[in-house]
Protein: Heme haloperoxidase family profile domain-containing protein
Amino acid sequence: MAIELLECPVFDWTYGLMMWSSYLSVILALPLAFAHYHDGHGSPSHWKPPGPGDFRGPCPMMNTLANHGFLPHDGKNLTEKTVVQALKSALNFNTSLGSLMFEMAIVANPEPNATFFTLDHLNRHNVLEHDASLSRSDAYFGNNHIFNRTIFDETRAYWTDPILTPNMLANSKLARQINSRASNPQYTFTSKTEAFSIGEVSAPIVAFGNMDSGLVNRTLVEYFFENERLPTDLGWKKKQEVISLDDIVKLSQMITQATSLLTAKEGLVVRNRDLHAGFSFAHQHS
Ligand code: HEM
Ligand SMILES: [Mg+2]
Structure:
């Protein structure tokens, strides 16, 4: 902690001031330094909603981390160091996973060779933000990044038990895609979107659930989406195990499997002269 403090530019600045300025300027500088202290040094118990001028985006977790001060509260200047540190201190992600996520996100900043992005950059439609979100409207219908109660209720209709299973999470994803494709003439969902979306559907398990079973407490997930706040008040604690890319891959495979609408076992007995079997025969030979 002491070393972190010494590396902190705000502290360096305050420290410099203390060395050569008068007692009075130190007194004046301290509250300023302290106000900045939470940026990037958040805590699960400290939470402040965004104010005017603060950027927020379509990711409930990035917004949450900014609300807790793990990321800069204004949602700006998210560098690799800041993002890696935030994901580590808030959720126990290892450094390589945090770096990878940053690398994947940097395209959100339209500037070439950018070294940071903002939460506002994440709103750019069909860059990372996509249609059929669990809690946001499609860009075609309006705001694509603010929490949307109607959309989230659509999602929650498939969360039918206090303990969410991978199937329930997958069902809500599929339902959102079907509703979106049925109503949005500009519905877009590529294989890249699918990979991203699978990650997002797994994310509540990563943060709040059991990585082996894929089960997660519904109340924690709803509280998180609705308040953009870590569910500390409901008894949640950061995972003790460090989370790596391997964990994410395993979980993504679990959710991918759950999004298949095929059942595992052959339950259907197909007779030779069955109409459907005939169709499939015709397809194979055309
Ligand atoms: C560098 C870090 C991250 C970036 C840049 C990022 C970015 C995004 C973006 C752009 C979306 C919007 C996709 C859409 O249109 O639905 C999104 C959604 C989402 N993200 Fe993140 N994210 C990050 C980390 C995380 C983490 C660590 C979690 C939780 C463990 C998380 C949870 C979610 C969830 C649950 C959604 C889906 C929201 C919805 O469908 O309504 N994200 N993220
Ligand atoms: Mg979206």
Observations:
- Residues 58, 129-130, 133, 136, 144 surround magnesium ion (ligand 2) (CB under 6 Å).
